[in-house]
């Protein structure tokens, strides 16, 4: 059994600095405060520019993220952290409603919302002035709500595109003293553009590109920097229903993190590139996809693997 360690004020500040430097990671496991992000990287890969048919469509996502290392600004293992282990699982529901006989600027119109349930466990050993200390935590609960009031869609037979604005409302479970939080305790706003192209028969190229602006977390007086992410998929239909391909994401933090109005450390900017195989099955009424995304070129965040099983059902 590991001893219970009480920290002096100096040691508490030292440990808090390690936390904010990206040692502990919320559900999305990227850079910014605590290493997390409001956007679930890698979710919108296959057919991300396609508009569902008129009416209500449900999307279900099951994700599992496993990481055994956390990186610094140079892409090296973070100093002072040992035996790092992070596992985050989430099940999410997204509802899309496409309006019938209503257009705007020549585009069809959609409204969307998404809500995750998150379970996470993190453990690691950290070097402190008093010696090495083991830290661990398990939390589960509701994540933050994403609302997209207005999505515009323009389509041709070979090119489909969507334009929208994600609004992330901080309703998720959060406590500033936790090592892991399902919620972020900040409002975030992300304008985005996505497309799906079919340059030749049976070949799909899709991407969703989003730029998130984060507000300050009032509980910690910490403001995470702006973030850019591009999910992508390149797939080939071997039959009318079955598609195989590669998918992943490119994540880059654009502006520095700030705490108390000043740049935090060296800015704590994160980045990651991920790639892996994807399989999709699609019929007019339902479909599913399975994806693996392996991370590399990581800075200021955890490095691991992300697995997805996702399904769509049309009412």
Tell me what you see in this structure.
This protein is mainly β and 315 residues long. The protein has one domain (14-314): monomeric porin ompg (Porin), CATH 2.40.160.40. It is 5% helix and 60% strand. It contains 1 helix and 17 strands. The chain has one helix spanning 9-23, and strands spanning 55-70, 81-104, 107-128, 131-142, 145-156, 159-169, 188-197, 203-214, 216-217, 222-223, 227-237, 242-253, 258-259, 262-263, 271-282, 286-299, 302-314. The strands form 2 sheets. The chain has a 12-stranded antiparallel β-barrel. Strand 11 and strand 12 (242-253) form a beta hairpin. The termini are far apart. Residues 1-30 have low confidence and may be disordered. This is Phenol degradation protein meta. Keywords: Signal. Residues 1-31 form the signal peptide. Pfam families: Phenol_MetA_deg.
Radius of gyration equals 20 Å
User: What's the CATH H-level superfamily name?
Assistant: monomeric porin ompg
Query: How many E strands?
Result: 17
Give the count of structural domains. Answer: 1
CATH architecture: Beta Barrel
Structural class: mainly beta
Unreliable parts: 1-30
> CATH class, anyone?
Mainly Beta
Separation of termini? 53 Å
Helical run tally: 1
CATH topology: Porin
The amount of helix comes to: under 10%
Largest sheet: 12 strands, antiparallel, barrel
What is the chain-wise order of helices and strands? HEEEEEEEEEEEEEEEEE
The strands making up the biggest β-sheet line up spatially as: 1-2-3-5-6-7-8-11-12-15-16-17
Shape: globular
Strand coverage percent: over 45%
Mean pLDDT value? 90
